[in-house]
Structure formats: structure tokens, C-alpha cells
Amino acid sequence: YNGALRIYRGEYTEHGKDAMLNYRMAECYIALKQGEDALSYLQKAKESNPGIDKDLEYNTALAYRMVANQDDAIKHIDMYLANEKLAKFDREKAEALKAKCTATLEMMANPVDVTIITAGDGINTDDNHEYHPSVTADGRIMVFTSRRADTEGGKRYAGDNDWYEDVYISYWSDSLKGWAPATPIPGSINTNGHDASMSISPDGRQLFLFKNQNAGDIFVSKTRMNKAASEAIAYGAPDASRLMSMNRWSKAYPLAGGVNSGYWDSNASVSSDGRQIYFASERPKGKGNGDIWVANKTSTNKYESAVNLKEINTIEDEKGVFVAADRKTIFFSSKGHRNMGGYDIFKSVKQDDGTWSAPENLGYPINTPGDEVDFTLTADGKTAYYSTKGSSNGKYDIMKIDLSNYQLTSPAKVEE
User: Fold this and answer.
1) What is the tens place of the pLDDT at every residue in 55-73?
2) pLDDT-derived band of residue 391, with 50, 70 and 90 as boundaries?
3) H/E run at residue 88
4) Which DSSP state fits 216?
5) Is the dihedral of CA 223, 129, 125, 406 positive or negative?
6) How does DSSP assign 119-149, residue by residue?
7) What are residue 169's phi and psi, to 5 degrees?
């Protein structure tokens, strides 16, 4: 879409009043989730030719959603639905969008009691993406993915001219009262290509990664625990997290058994006892697009065939799963269910009979009409982190959620 915009802009000086040129530029901005720009070009297209495209009012509604104007979005959806010649598919998609607008207004009128702030200067930067946060059970070590100039290969990805992904690590500093400046993770994880973290195990000794191999596979790396870190952990020393964040990590290797499939597999999260791994996959026999799956561990690096969590998956896209310390509560991002728009974060709890509860939207302001992904939670249930495009430059940032007044899970004991 950025490439298309470059071509369209080249034509704009001479053909700036052309209705279709304005409309196509608006479509690109919608795909890039830049609502204000989309609205500007949609208005110009409509002024030149009100009948430019049957989806004009629907796309206008989408753009109003992106600038958090639900009332005007609903108005334009109703205008779209007034067309009696709409195909069944078009009518259903419009009604689904209207339902999301209505849900957004309802949830914004009844916000949950949380405080959301940036994860801090030690984690986020002004000009780069930061996403896929994951914290150890004690909340004192964070790994995440970023696209920065100090990437291992020192090169940009030709697909979007941004830096290649690398994995970064930080530790919670009591003296700073925040996260220490993140550094590229020590060891053999980062390479000359894309390297993306998905989650760190609750005990901080395994790191699950995504690599774009075989359509997308899940890899794992382990720490080479140094003596100082081991002793600090054993004695509960205050600098244990700092020492552990300096441990070197092994070269990542793909998970065997029933996890990787030859289709896109990603977003892995391991249970606190290490016996189960939850992940997202686009393999066959799911409900549609990405689904959440779970596999039981059988040996050091092998798993049984994965099982689809049919009660929580939809025909829309699910991803970004995280299993809480209680081993029965999962959080995931979805474009389905009772959704405010884009990806929202949902919660589901495994019942005594093995089924999963109906997914519950975490509510506003955790969720917004934009995308909220990569939810991770400390074992005490008091602090969460997630990724959202909250910055003015359109980059992903990692945000911190204070859950002191909004209990999502029962506190779990951190294993020493």
C-alpha cells in the first residue's frame, strides 16, 4: 500500500481532482489504518463523483472508526445499508461493523478501572516499533521485539524499508523505579534477518521465537545460566534480575512434535509448569484464519498433536495468546466476538469439564477501536503489558496496565 501511494502521489499534481485517484488513495490509507488521511481523500472523491463506488459509505464508516468517531461511523453504515441492492455478504459485513461500533460506545460508557501508561523510556523509543512484550512470572525481566538501527545485520528490510526485527531484553530496576535501558539480547538469537520474540517462560530460562521458515515456525532458545545469576536467584539477591538478563542465550532451534505444521505457526506461550504450549496457527481444520491451539509436552523438545480450542476461536483472526500463571486462564487477541474493532484482547477460563468459558472482552480503555495485541501478565495479576499503536508516529509501543482495581486472575505463587 505504501508503494501504491507513492505512485498515486506522483499522479496527484496533474490529476488531483480525479475521483477514482482520490478513492484509491483513501483505500490505501484505510489499509494502513490512517483514518484522518482516508477521510480527506474520501471526501474529495465523493465531491467529484458521489457514485464512485458502491462501498464509498462503508469505507467512510471504517475511516470514522479509525478516528474513534463511532456516531458518524454508524450514520454512514446506515447510509450504506439503505441500498436495497446490496449483496448478502456486503449487508452482513456492514451489520457486523455496526455491531462493533455499538459495542464500542457501550464499553466506552462503562470503562474498567485500570491505569495505562507507557512501559517507559527503557523500553520504548520515539522512532521505532516495540512489540511482543513478555515478562517473567515475577515481572522483573522483559523481552520484546523492536526494529532499530542497531539491528544485528545493520540493514533494512526491503519489504517496508524499516530495520530488521531483533530481540531485546531489559530488567526492572528498583533504583530507577522502572525498566533499565533495553539491550539486544546476549547470545546467538539475533541474526542478519528477522528475529522476533514471542514469550519468555515464567522462570526466565526459555525463550520462544518466531522465524519465517516453512511459512512460519516456532523456535526455542535457552539460557546459558552463569554462576553469578544462579547464586543470586538461589539467595533472592536484589540484583538477580539484572544478572539473569545478562545471561547468554543459545542458538534457537525449531520445536518438534505437534507444534510446527508447515503452515504459519506463531505467538507461543508456555504454561507455568512447562507441560503445555498455547500458540496461534493457520493450519487446516481450524475455524478460519489464525486460531488458538494447545499441545501437551511429551519430552524435552517434543509435543503431542495440537488441539484446536474451538470454543474460543472464530472465523475471524485469533492470535497473541498468553497463558496465565494459574494454568487455566488464557488471554488472546481476536477480531471476532464482541469486539470494539481491530484486534481486541479477550479472556477465557478452562472449566472443570475441560471446556472453555465464553471469551470476555477486557473492556475499554484496555481495548480501543484500534489494534491491541501481545498481552502478558505477572503472576500476582497486578501488572500487565501489551502492544498498541498509541504513539503519534503510528509505531507500536509497549504499554503498562495497572490492574490493582481490576482482578483478571487469582494471584499465583511464583516458583523459585
Assistant:
1) 999 999 999 998 889 999 9
2) low
3) helix 88-109
4) S
5) negative
6) --TTT--SSS-EEEEEE-TTS-EEEEEE--T
7) -140, 145
Question: Could you tell me if residue 223 is left (phi over 0), alpha (psi between -120 and 50 degrees) or otherwise beta?
Answer: beta
Q: Dig out the grid coordinates for 137 from the structure.
A: 512470572
Amino acid found at 188:
S
Which residues, at least 6 apart from 168, have a Cβ–Cβ distance to it below 8 Å? 143, 144, 145, 146, 182, 183, 184, 185
Name the residue type at position 394. Answer: G
> Which stretches of 223-317 are DSSP H helices?
227-234, 240-245
Residue 316 and residue 287: Cα distance in Å, rounded?
A: 8
Identify the CA nearest to 300 among candidates 376, 413, 205: 205
Specify whether the CB–CB gap between 69 and 35 falls below 8 A.
no
Q: How far apart are CA 307 and CA 315, in angstroms?
A: 17
CA 37 – CA 16 distance, rounded (Å): 15
Q: Which amino acid is at 158?
A: A
Predicted structure pTM score: 0.87
